[in-house]
Specification:
The protein is built from 17 helices and two strands. It has a two-stranded antiparallel ribbon. A hairpin with a 5-residue loop joins strand 1 and strand 2. Helix 1 packs across helix 14, helix 2 crosses helix 14 and helix 11 runs antiparallel to helix 12. The radius of gyration is 22 Å and the shape is globular.
């Protein structure tokens, strides 16, 4: 095994995942009609869930391979979805926004918009796209521009939403589920299979989110999912604290399965709320002139706190023990309150008209006003 080759491969993998997380949510949001944007954009997280489930199944299947080949086979098979993504990117059409930005003539963009909307009655939306493009082209430095006061709501959300998504504690489950399950009494193979079960629960719940997000709205799913995650974490933390304390040897079979059910309940709450909506909402709230910068900040913050949580979890587990569930539960309470107070509903709102949700919000609306030129400014 060459450690430097492994590190180099991980660096390349990180670059590829970063590009994909930057481009795919924006692509889906720009292509989707407003009334179906939530369902289509949530397909991103649904596909990620399928990939995670497949990875858990592969890990379970390769665990018994001897001679050190199990992990090699597991890593090598990751090239399959990467190849599909690469080939798919070669045949996907550009979004109308992208065509307007890069083409001197708008004919191709108009034809593409008619094609993906399935109607020729697209003049109002097309004019919105052209107007957004004109504003975007007048701005030379989107990263500098996003710091201006008139984009303060979007900047706050581009930082808060990915931060909150990571401090739900979901990556603790994703990265360390086998370790957690061994800690509470499962064996090696049973621990890996338990991770498969939780992955399956997450995938199914994300699919449910696809079916319901455009009917009930983003806020409703975030509030319900947050309450569900909080309840599950309090129960699991309290049970493990009562039964194991700081130095327990195992919960016993019945209690271990109950903890597995509650973790599945927690994963389901994440799967139809912060999992998909943590990517959906940032992809739909940015005006075109700061869209690339806003999504870049969103992705960077997401992966920064993914790294921080992953690197600190084992130390936190050793120090906090069962209190780790109360720690993340406290953050879930904070983020649920944040959604209730500060996040406006965005369902069925065209992306280029998203400024209206900030003007009508009880908090942001006090600061936001519409200028005579139609731009949004903050007092």
């Amino acid at each position: 095994m060459n450690i430097y080759m492994l590190i180099f491969g991980r660096v390349l993998l990180g670059i590829g995942v970063g590009f994909a997380n930057q481009a795919v949510p924006l692509y889906l949001s720009e292509m989707a009609p407003p009334r179906y944007r939530g369902a289509i954009s949530n397909g991103f997280q649904f596909s990620v869930g399928i990939g995670a489930l497949a990875a858990n199944l592969i890990n379970y299947g390769t665990e018994k391979i001897s001679g050190g080949w199990g992990w090699r086979v597991s890593l090598a098979l990751a090239a399959v979805p990467a190849s599909l993504l690469t080939v798919g990117s070669l045949i996907l059409p550009d979004t109308p926004n992208s065509l307007i930005e890069r083409e001197a003539s708008h004919d191709k963009a108009k034809m593409m918009l008619q094609r993906i909307r399935g109607t020729t009655n697209i003049n109002n939306e097309f004019e919105d796209l052209i107007q957004a493009s004109k504003i975007s082209k007048s701005i030379s430095h989107p990263f500098k521009n996003i710091l201006k006061k008139r984009y303060r709501p979007q900047l706050v959300m581009s930082i808060a939403i990915p931060f909150f998504q990571q401090v739900t504690g979901i990556n603790v489950i994703a990265f360390y589920a086998p370790l957690l399950f061994r800690t509470i009494g499962f064996g090696e193979s049973a621990s890996l299979m338990s991770a498969v079960v939780t992955g399956l629960v997450g995938t199914i719940s994300t699919f449910i989110s696809m079916l319901t997000v455009d009917r009930f709205g983003r806020r409703t799913l975030l509030l319900v999912g947050g309450a569900q995650m909080l309840v599950a974490q309090m129960i699991v933390g309290g049970l493990i604290g009562a039964k194991l304390g700081d130095h327990g040897e195992g919960l016993g079979k019945a209690w271990s399965y109950f903890v597995l059910v509650m973790i599945g309940f927690y994963v389901a709450g994440f799967g139809w709320s912060w999992g998909p909506l943590g990517w959906l909402i940032p992809s739909e709230i940015f005006p075109l002139e700061i869209r690339s910068a806003g999504q870049s900040i969103n992705v960077a913050v997401n992966f920064l706190f993914t790294f921080i949580v992953a690197q600190t979890f084992l130390a936190m587990l050793c120090r906090l023990k069962f209190g780790i569930f109360f720690f993340f539960g406290g953050w879930v309470a904070v983020m649920t309150s944040f959604v209730y107070l500060f996040l406006p509903e965005t369902k069925n709102v065209p992306i280029e008209q998203m400024g209206s949700v900030w003007r009508e919000h009880w908090f942001w609306g006090k600061m936001v006003k519409e200028s005579k030129a139609g731009a949004i400014e903050l007092e």
